[in-house]
Amino acid sequence: MKHSAQIIVCCAQKGGVAKTVTTHNLAVALSQTGKKVLAVDMDYQSNLTCCLGIEQPNDLPVGIAQLLEAELHDDDLPESESYIQHCGSIDLIAASTYLSAVSETMRLEMGSERFLADILTPLRPLYDYILVDTGPKLDNLNINALVAADLVVIPVNPQYLSAMGLERLMATIAKVRRRFNPNIEIAGVLLTMCEKRTTLCQMISNQIRQEYGSILHVFQSTIPMTVKVGESVYFSKSVIEYCPSSPAATAYQAFAQELLEQGKLRIVAKAELQKEVES
């Protein structure tokens, strides 16, 4: 069977839930297990791009905005060497503020929902995982990410408004599944920025597990609130690299292992289903 990367999108319909930090640390954790990882920044704020050490994203000649623009005009994509940045153990397709303008133009283009999927298709044989970071708004950039996705990880900060956004996102993913991408699956909900000592955090964490646990996987790993995460972002490092012994670093590595195990179980289930079909 031809090798093809699994595309994992980190998505939430609310800012401040650690989407970018989660994408960054998951990329590093997977690379530490020997996986080849490509990160894609689909947020015009360029947070993931900056986290990976690129200080002036607008100075890059080619990033995701230019690739989407090429799709918009039916132009050939450039060679991957011109737009893939090598950031330590992680490869990156960077974002810039120009992505906002391209996104506005895409809104009026028929079939633009599939642009990112078309861009990533030729790259899938080159990687084990492609991780896509998204912005907080449900715009056509996020829809592009979901149309390209195999799996969606939903970070949720256990606060009331963050938990409310979970149901809206699930409805959006259901629409994407019906209209564009029948293969999209929700890998699960990841509880982030958890202050376990507070009553509110405990209440909402329990509520999410009780209300959604029967229809969604809620990862056992939870990411604690810690200043080390903020410090790591300031120094353009993952918390795994910045402070490997911190609780957040340990939690992100455990989360990556959960995802890997989940992937193995999915492969076994598909193989068993194929056997049943063939028999």
Explain what the structure shows:
This protein is an alpha/beta fold. It is built from eleven helices and seven strands. It has a seven-stranded mixed sheet with strand order 3-4-2-5-1-6-7, sandwiched between helices. β3 and β4 form a beta hairpin. α1 packs across α11 and α3 runs parallel beside α4. The two termini are 20 Å apart.
Tally of contiguous helical segments: 11
Give the total of beta strands. 7
Q: Largest sheet, described in full? A: 7 strands, mixed
Helix-strand pattern, N to C? EHEHHEEHHEHEHEHHHH
Spatial arrangement of strands, main beta sheet = 3-4-2-5-1-6-7
Mean pLDDT over the full residue set: 89
Q: Give the percentage of residues in beta strands.
A: 5-15%
Strand pairing plus helix content: what structural class?
alpha/beta
Radius of gyration: 18 Å
Task: Show the helix and strand layout.
Layout: E1 6-10, H1 19-32, E2 37-42, H2 47-51, H3 64-72, E3 84-87, E4 90-93, H4 98-106, H5 115-120, E5 129-134, H6 140-148, E6 151-156, H7 160-179, E7 185-191, H8 199-212, H9 227-234, H10 239-242, H11 247-278
Parallel strand pairs: 1-5, 1-6, 2-4, 2-5, 6-7
Antiparallel strand pairs: 3-4
